[in-house]
Amino acid sequence: MPSDSDQATLEAIAASGKPLTVSEAIDVAFRAQPRLRAQLETIDQARGLQQIAFSAFLPAAGLRFDGGGFNFGAHGFPLQITPVTGSNMMPSAQPILISTHLETTFDLIEGNVQWLLLDFGRRLGRYEQARLAGDIAGLQTDRAFQTVANDVAIAYYGVLRSQALLRTAQDAFRRAEEELADARKREREGVVERETVLRSEVQRAENLQQLHAATEAEFVALAELNLAIGLKGNQPVRVADPKEIPPLAPSLTDCLQTAIRERREFAVVRRTVQIAVEGTRVARADFAPKAVANGTLLNFQTGRSITNADLALGFIRLEWTLFEGGRKIAATRVAESAVRQAMAQAESIADNIAFQVNEAYRNAVTAWIGIDDARPAVEQATENYRLVQVRLREGAATPTEIADAQASLTRAQQNFLNARYNYLIATARLEYAMGVGQTPRTQVARHHQPA
Questions:
Q1: What does the pLDDT look like over 396-409, one tens digit per residue?
Q2: Are strands 92-96 and 77-81 parallel, antiparallel or unpaired?
């Protein structure tokens, strides 16, 4: 049998609080999953980049302050005076004193306003790219919520499957122990040979191994569910088996049409193509000039003489780079190539989505058929096991027959459970492939539906 600690842990999980439905588990994941918090940050980043792109339409104003001083000094020197020929003036050397000293502090304040008036679509193209990138971030975040919802649903049904298979393994082990006890009793009475007891012991050992494997599978499934929700290992979740299973989708065509309407990737690729097209506008605008309005105000003040000088300057500058070594032509070619690449990626994404929907729909159909096939087999195996037990009590059944009947019943129960939960998992994957998985917006809509 599984260890007492393992069994106690499972019992504690089963007894912990109110069981969560699939939708409630997804709600918890939307609040606790760190992957979603990281994805939400991309929206804030995209909004910031959009604001940065918009700032290019506004003027830029700046202010600069310089403070300092200067010291200037000049001193005299001797000047030789030579009389003119024929003059009675005596030659002499007279010193001429020239002395100038200036010392003061000064402040220089410069204010500048610059506004890009015309750039022939550069700013608009970059702003449109940033805006579309924000839309893409929102769509990708929406899809990330659907991905988490899909992971939680699959893990949730995995826990239900593991718990159901564990109960089946426990029932099989209980039947094996009953058969072993009955075989030992009949051996003591001399009704059966020793080989019957040995066969029952082997059957019990096999069922015990299956029970250990089922116990391990439940622990792993619970850990996987905690990981999908974003909970810690010491925060077990109790699950509830749905009372009804959802019906099968009407047709593959309906599923494909729903995917075309709901899959976020289609909107993402459309905006990706638009971003590439805007990139060609930006690249072509680089060939055109730019017109910039500039205004500057200078204020100069000295410290000692309180001298004040102002200079106001305003102008419109036309900038036009005529040659850059082929950079603009290459940038245009790169932008046009990006458009073709985006178109090709859009076609590839559409093909992949069609395949995903087709595969998920076929899996759901197969699982749905499997449920109908497996359900009568359980009833037949149960009745067969009962009849063999009756014959065994009458002494008309062999040990091989009872072992085969027990194994057939266990397999039939396992096949039915696998078919049931395979269908639930396939349905969750089909919803994810069609893009109709749960998101915060669908939660709000569901909570506001009239009762």
A1: 777 778 888 988 99
A2: antiparallel
Q: In angstroms, rounded to a whole number, what is the distance separating the alpha carbons of residues 73 and 101? A: 4
Taking the C-alpha atoms of residue 259 and residue 251, their distance in angstroms, rounded to an integer, is 13
* C-alpha dihedral sign at 260, 261, 263, 264: positive
What dihedral do alpha carbons 337, 139, 156, 224 form, nearest 10°?
60
Q: DSSP readout, 156-193?
A: HHHHHHHHHHHHHHHHHHHHHHHHHHHHHHHHHTTSS-
Dist CA 341 CA 103 (whole Å): 68
Q: What is the Cα–Cα distance from 125 to 276, expressed in whole angstroms?
A: 10
397 and 386 in contact (C-beta within 8 Å)? Answer: no
Structure tokens at 165: 């298979």
The hierarchical CATH code for the domain 4-58+119-288+326-447 is 1.20.1600.10
Radius of gyration for the chain, computed over Cα atoms and rounded to the nearest angstrom: 43
Cα distances (angstroms) measured from residue 307 to each of 229, 272, 378: 73, 61, 106
Contacts of 237 (CB under 8 A, 6+ apart): 13, 20, 25, 28, 159, 222, 225, 226, 229, 231
For tokens 């009949």, the residue is 186
| Amino acid in position 354 | A
Domains of the chain: which residue ranges?
4-58+119-288+326-447
Provide the token pair at 44: 């804030």
Neighbours of 137 (CB within 10 A): 22
DSSP 91: P
Cβ atoms 186, 432 nearer than 8 A: no
Give this prediction's pTM: 0.78
- pLDDT tens profile 52-108: 999 989 999 999 888 877 776 666 555 555 665 665 655 555 555 556 666 777 788
Q: If DSSP codes are grouped into helix, strand and coil, which group holds residue 233?
A: coil
Cα separations (Å) of 224 from 62, 232, 411, 430, 437?
A: 56, 11, 26, 21, 20
CA distance 126 to 143: 26
Q: Of 402, 25, 20, nearest to 178 (Cα)?
A: 402
CA 143 to chain centre: 8
Low pLDDT (below 70) residues in the chain: 1-17, 72-102, 234, 303-307, 441-451
Cα–Cα distance, 224 to 127 (Å, whole number) = 43
The rounded distance, in Å, linking the Cα atoms of 259 and 36 is 23
Structure-block tokens of residue 309: 């000088």
Task: State which amino acid sits at residue 383.
Answer: E
